[in-house]
Amino acid sequence: MHPAPISKATLAEFYRLALLLTGNIKKAERVMAETLRDVEEQLGELRHEANRQAWLASRIRERCLRENSGGGQPVPRLLRAEEADEVLPIEAFIVAQHISTLPEPERSALALFYSDLFTAEEIAMVLKVNVEELAELLSRARQQLAEAMQPSA
Prior knowledge:
about 65% helix; Butyryl-CoA Dehydrogenase, subunit A, domain 3
């Protein structure tokens, strides 16, 4: 028995997660390509994986953190029609820019939360924290995001 295929909608959500975490289209694409190669190589093991989506999110997050450890803050770019199937509305792009600049693990907590793929318990498992710590991370992340989005005086 093979694992259930990953739907296009789910892959799109994972790509958005990678984009939020890296803040860069090319990095997000590279992360997704490498992660999907992992999936191909480990199909047998994933057949028995209780929570494939959490495993996939963990791999994407780890790779995004490595991509961003090269120094400096990522520079998000607006998706153009030739680069993706969808153009982000400007408000969503601005929020994505700000999320990608949050510190870890707040950035991951918020990106996973807004991906609509996971329950709070699953997000806590991916981040290796308990649910109470996740609530604190989300609260801090929302506060940091609100502060970052305040217009400069």
